[in-house]
Amino acid sequence: MARTKSLLVLLCTLAVVSPKCLSDIDSAKVELEEYIDFKIPDINPRYRLHYHVTPPVGWMNDPNGFSYHDGEFHLFYQYYPYDSVWGPMHWGHVSSPDLVHWNQLPTALLPENEQCFSGSAVSIGDTMALMYTAHEVTDKEPYYNESQYLAFSDDGIDFYKYEGNPVLPAAPNGSPDFRDPKVWKYGNEWYVVLGSKTLDQRGRVLLYKSKDLKDWEFLTVLGESQGDMGYMWECPDFFELDGKFVLLMSPQGMKAEGDRYKNTFQNGYIIGSFDYETNEFHPEVDFQEMDFGHDFYAAQTTEHNGKRYVVAWFSMWEVPHVEDVDGWSGAMTIVRELKLVDDRIIMKPLDEMIDLRHHTIMHGRLRSHEVTALPQATELIVDGNIKQKIELYLQGVDGGGKVWVRWDPAVGKVVVDRGAGDVRQVEWSPIGSTSWRIFLDASSLELFCGEGEVVFSSRVYPLGGWKLTNLSSQSLKIEAYHLKRTVPA
């Protein structure tokens, strides 16, 4: 490795380039990967997930660049390797042949004068292009500026930033909040949506068009809060699904309304119609939350072979991140497939998740108040009579976190309760199956009700594996499978 560094320094000395020459950046990348390898043995594995993407060390938040390129899926993420709290943003990087088994790749983007905030990835032939938000600190209020940058790669691993950056220097109204580009191609032109806000603090999504990703034309405000949907719309995505168009975004500043909007920030969608001739989006179904759990934010989608997939940050802002004392923080949800049924999106686990089943732990009935132990990485399929109450209690074999999962037919709600009043609940009207499918990992729970019409994603921190108690008055049919590891240990 020292020999590689010496060569890089020599090349930098010989090249006639700017002071921040390419070889300096390459050297910084080499040093970062050495640092990551050095720090990995210090990670405490007690809450380390088995089949969810996590950072090798340090901090992770939003998914970025979720895409399919050159025969593999790619997923990037907001990343700060030097501490397990948020810091100057890099782009971490993993790839997968099937969205279930993941390979860790070198850090894709390192900050220079700009922090590398969220964005997306597209293919231009054999080249992968990233479009991301450059967040720069300034000396004038509001003390930051956001513009849009490009980076390219010929091999899908090593990225270089476009010399003509920024390609989108400012929002049309001059708002400094102008971020999270999501790019797609329609016909021979590229489109991008960006999150922003009005000058009177209402969230909005902007739509642009380009022939080459470099010169952009502002088209319209695709969607905008009327005052009841927050002060900023982050991480927008816009796509066609089963004949309708979906505007997916993460509003900040929505007020809680009963059971709804109880997280720090929200993640949801508006269903409507869109015309590429007029660039007009006509909402037909009001905003709905995408996931009803405690920890789901900044969701991003991609499409391949006619299927639309989604992944989200499996955490939340301004809440405790229990694993941060262990040298890492943050995770991604499992990838889900999206379908549109009537006026809502349903999310289903991928068929490939079945391949993770290492062996069967249980296939039978769990009597009322019976207890069984489960490994950290477990899939549960739960069947009961939904005309009666159902209640599961999950806790750590050796203590730690606990969670109750309940169904009450009298009110028609599913509940995920982490104790101390930390409850998320929503009405459930099954459209087919009445089973629950629950994915447990070392510090997470994902509950899919029925066909996926109601989904909860919540972080829970048990110690020493899971202990399941059936608190229902009825016995329940349980299938339990130990799941394989699909991410680096």
Structure in words:
It is built from 2 helices and 33 strands. It is mainly β and about 500 residues long. Mean pLDDT is about 95; it is low at about 1-20. The longest helix is centred in the N-terminal third of the chain and has 18 residues, at about 20-40.
Descriptive keywords:
489 residues, mainly beta, six-stranded antiparallel sheet, disordered N terminus
Number of helices: 2
Strands of the widest sheet, in order across it, are 22-33-24-29-30-31
Number of beta strands: 33
Overall outline = globular
Low-confidence stretches: 1-21
Largest sheet features: 6 strands, antiparallel
Look at the structure and give the mean pLDDT. Answer: 95
Tell me the radius of gyration: 23 Å
Structural class assignment: mainly beta
State the distance separating the first and last CA atoms.
24 Å
Residue fraction in strands: over 45%
The portion of residues assigned to helices is under 10%
